[in-house]
Amino acid sequence: MSDKLIQSVERAADILELFSLTESELSVKEISERLGLSKSTVHGLIKTLEHRGYLEQRLSDQKYKLGLRLFQLGNLVGGGMELRKVAYPIIQELVEKLHETVHMVVSDKDEVVYVEKLEGLGSLRMYSMVGKRAPMYCTGVGKAMLAFFEESAIERILQEVKFQKFTPYTLDTPDEIKQELRKIREQGYAIDDEEIEIGLKCVAAPIFNHEGTVVASISCAGPKHRFSDEKTAIVIQEVRSAGLEVSRKLGYRV
Amino acid sequence: MSDKLIQSVERAADILELFSLTESELSVKEISERLGLSKSTVHGLIKTLEHRGYLEQRLSDQKYKLGLRLFQLGNLVGGGMELRKVAYPIIQELVEKLHETVHMVVSDKDEVVYVEKLEGLGSLRMYSMVGKRAPMYCTGVGKAMLAFFEESAIERILQEVKFQKFTPYTLDTPDEIKQELRKIREQGYAIDDEEIEIGLKCVAAPIFNHEGTVVASISCAGPKHRFSDEKTAIVIQEVRSAGLEVSRKLGYRV
DNA sequence: CTTTTCGTTCGATAATGTCGAACGCCATTC
DNA sequence: GAATGGCGTTCGACATTATCGAACGAAAAG
Fold first, then answer.
1. pLDDT band at B66 (very low <50, low <70, confident <90, very high)
2. Nucleotide nearest B30 (Cα, C1')
3. Which band of pLDDT confidence, cut at 50, 70 and 90, is reported for residue B123?
4. What fold, for B81-249?
5. How far is the CA of B207 from the C1' of D18 (A)?
6. What is the pLDDT of residue B244?
7. Closest chain B residue to A65 measured between Cα atoms?
8. Would you call B79 and A106 a contact, using CB atoms and an 8 Å cutoff?
9. What interface predicted TM-score (ipTM) does this complex get?
10. Å between CA of B64 and C1' of D17
11. Which of B3, B42, B109, B242 is the least buried, fewest Cβ under 10 Å from its Cβ?
């Protein structure tokens, strides 16, 4: 059937997506329990993924982890991104100027995915990591993209997303967020002031392609106590400038 | 059956592995022809992979490319590698000292996979790229690992590998290669002198773990004309030293 | 305007993937 | 040391799925 997906491929994807940074090794039993599948089913799927290099088994305790084939394919994705090639020197400059961590993200459904991260000196440990996802409605980088989506896409995303209050400052109602997005469109940048994480402040700007479509955003983030009003003004200017520079290199014309 | 793999999962993997840096977009028809599968079969597999984020379809011409989910999982693999965390500052030092490109690889069956690459100033464009695979028998990094494998593993790999002469200097018979591996074990480093690519020279050293098992290798590579006898001696010393430093940080004791 | 090509859908059916039972090995407990 | 328990692995029956050829529709090509 045309609307039907292939069950075994979905199950294989389920298995791969069980792994995370905090849970990098899993046994057959654990996978079977988490997915509600019988051990022999899981065993067949795992042996196939292992055979193709997507999983690796440690012989000492027979636990599985993600394999090098994913590393290879993941790097193909990253290495093929024109955006990253174009943006990287601009990101390096920004880090040198501002001495904070710079991120770049792209959107994927109702989330953003970090595609670049360069840490400045004195960086603190942060939630973000290249490859990781984050919500769109309450991160600087996410809001900087969302604000410039088409109205219909914004409506759909705000309907589908499951709002979660990460801190007391997290905006989590569609009306609040829409108001915020209007403001971002007016001023040309977004700010995450302790919405995703207490103590963390982030300034972000959208990146457009040659068609004027927002395809990414760039940000500068750091501990809130380092962001005086004066420094924040400088960061806003530099981040907006960087966003425009990357956009221009992608063919964007104001 | 226990030795049976799951066909649909293998076919999905086949599709993902059709993509490369030079061929980053494919149509349903192309995939169908390359794999010898009917278009409706390919369509079902592709729609499943797309739905899960492993493939993305460009709407303008309906071609497919690898999706962000692979980027995410690939970064999970890379981000979880203790080896990379431990080695990175040492690699940076090496680049600063030698002003050439430094690589690090791990092994995967009868090949090596580049897990780190840091380019020095004045680097030339090279075959290598993080995530990419290379043969073990005729690269510096590959030989630096192979030489320190167990005898049975060396035998097996030299039997299974399909030898290919990349340049007139490529060693491509088991006897020649074994002789070379003996020499590498004696001197503690490997050299690729235009075996994989004309004009390219590379010096590599093994990296051992706490059990004394070779788990990676590190190398310095550059255009052959920059490698005078004097400079080569310096590079050998620095690369061996770096290999040992990474090994020690992994718990290796001579 | 006609023809060709390709992506997509549909449904029959051959083939597969699923899973419960059983086994073997190893660790744990007594 | 023996018994028990847990988990990974194997096997085979069978219910269900994945496969693919035919057909369709849209867009491109001639």
1. very high
2. C6
3. low
4. Beta-Lactamase (3.30.450)
5. 46
6. 97
7. B77
8. no
9. 0.91
10. 25
11. B3
